[in-house]
Amino acid sequence: MKKSYTLKLEGKEWKDCLKDAFDKKKKDVKMDGFRKGQVPYDVYVKKMGVEVLYMDAVDFALDILYARLLSDKDTITPAATPAIDIKEIDKEHVEIEFTLVAVPEVDLGKYKDLGIKKEKIVVSDEEIEHELGHLKEQFAELRTVDDDKKIKEGMTAVIDFEGFLNDKAFKGGKGEDYPLEIGSHTFIPGFEEALVGLKKGDKKDVKVTFPENYQSEELKGQKVVFKVEIKEVKEKVYPEFDKEFFEDLNVGGVENLDDLKKYIKENLEAEKEKNQSDEYLFKCLDKIVKDSKFEIPEEMTEDEVNRLTREFSERLSYQGLNIETYLQYANSTMDEFKETLKPEANRRIGYRLVMDAVVAKEKLEVSDLELEEGLNKTSEEYGMSREDFEKEIGSKELFKYDLLMRKAMKVITGE
Predict the structure, then answer these.
(1) pTM value?
(2) Are 6 and 61 contained in the same domain?
(3) CATH for 324
(4) The total number of structural domains that make up the chain
């Protein structure tokens, strides 16, 4: 269901929005007779006309009017970002139409005792040994081998190299004292294998072919020669699980190999239990969604797709990339990318809808005391002050909703 509401902002409230819009751009305003950023509002409006402030002022007006609209008990609960239409605007007032899409009604299916079983959590000896191997890798040391010892898989060769295409050195193809682990597959296919059997002081011309999908247009698919000199050869020396190792490990209660295996087992069990709980909840939610009836508005899907896109873009930024570059590599457009996100978006929306329906059906609530205790406990878990934690989450209401969802999850899973 969609419903439109028209609201008006006028008089002092609208004039304040116009002044806020001016303050927003004031620092960049230049005008004869005034320093940059020092032009008075009245002078600016007289010269430029108040109309140039309208669009920025609307942003401020939207916040005021939308908050006012949501506070009205007769307003439908919006499921997505409203559509906005500016009906009238002048120096005295602005009139804006908000079109809201209502949260869809949910005919909730069975949501308790769903007959979904959990598997017994088992940590095998092989898994423990695998983790012990990781620890050995973590504490391994690289030590220089004897000069006559030949390079083998797993060793590290410290090399000087320079690449040549048609007997000419190419850009980016030179390195000095470069540590290359043989078998890491960090160089062009065939390069690392060609160094096996060499020793310190050896030189070799390594012939390789760049992959067809290599990023450099000049080099993709090209046969090149790397002149390589072995400067040093190192191998990993793995630690013994002795007294010195456990002192360096510095884990409380872990003083020998049996203690360490027990510690690893407990951590693996905790990790598996967490993963199993998540998987069990999702299986329960999938079943509830399948057995429930509701229709997801397009606007709701679009909002969730945009949220997923922002999340993905943020993850890329942590790797020093942006979504435009990613789409180029993927040979895709933004519209095509967003289309691939729709199933996940609708899955998330479905989960929220049925959990909200469970909250309503069970009449679940979060008391003020539960909210306070939750805020205190969670801020402590994050090692933050209560004040800083509240600033980080942005809104107590969002945290309260999260606590409400946790209650709904307990009802669904029976935990």
Answers:
(1) 0.74
(2) yes
(3) 1.10.3120.10
(4) 3
